[in-house]
Design brief:
6-stranded antiparallel beta sheet, Jelly Rolls, mainly beta, 183 residues, binds dtdp-4-keto-L-rhamnose, globular, 2 helices
């Protein structure tokens, strides 16, 4: 199996480590494989790939799509390094409101699998970072939702006070002000 799958403290969030073949030319690795991921417990059918580039100390997030267009995501860095963040928004989960921060780099090629029911965001650690993520549902702008990156109830230690944010992300609500029926 060219991958190892490691559980995290948030049930359903999985660290997916590829086997990297390095030689004088550079490297090769499989970044995703339907059969092997299914064996590893990840059965999502991905329907969309997204790519973004961001400068250092950008934070994108925290984002999710409301029901019935929730998205699972498989996040990987093509260039640079990020601190990726998943927040459990499943109201009945024992880890509801808890978050996980995990550093992803281009060198390691690790993907973070984030299931439906989570908000996602990341901070860019390198001068620039290019991020690629697969999504299990199509973009549905009417159902695009966000939570403030610095919501005090989430206690996320981003390690930065004044990130670069989109206008949208400067004005995201706190989780406590969101109708939980929408999550
Ligand atoms: C997410 C998305 C955006 N767009 C458009 C809408 C908008 O004009 C432009 C930029 O969108 P945003 O500012 O929302 O991009 P961004 O802030 O990068 O949003 C993304 O953040 C990360 C953390 C995620 O997890 C994603 O699901 C997504 O929400 O791209 C699409 O056409 N398709 C898409 O799937």
């Amino acid at each position: 199996m060219p991958f190892t799958f490691e559980k995290t403290k948030l049930p359903g969030v999985v660290v997916c480590k590829p086997r990297i073949f390095a030689d004088d030319r550079g490297y090769f690795f499989e970044s995703w494989n339907l059969r092997d991921f299914a064996e590893g417990g990840i059965h999502e059918t991905f329907v969309q790939d997204n790519q973004s580039a961001s400068v250092k100390n950008t934070i994108r997030g925290l984002h999710y799509q409301a029901k019935p267009f929730q998205q699972a995501k498989l996040v990987r860095v093509l260039s640079g390094a990020i601190l990726d963040c998943a927040v459990d928004l499943r109201p009945h989960s024992p880890t509801f409101k808890q978050s996980l921060l995990y550093e992803l780099t281009d060198e390691k090629g690790i993907s973070l699998f984030i299931p439906e029911g989570f908000a996602h965001g990341f901070r860019v650690l390198s001068d620039k970072a290019v991020v690629l993520y697969k999504a299990s549902a199509f973009y549905a702008p009417e159902y695009d939702r966000g939570i403030a990156w610095n919501d005090p109830d989430l206690h996320i230690d981003w390690g930065i006070e004044s990130p670069i944010l989109s206008e949208k992300d400067k004005n995201q609500p706190r989780l406590r002000n969101i109708d939980h029926a929408e999550l």
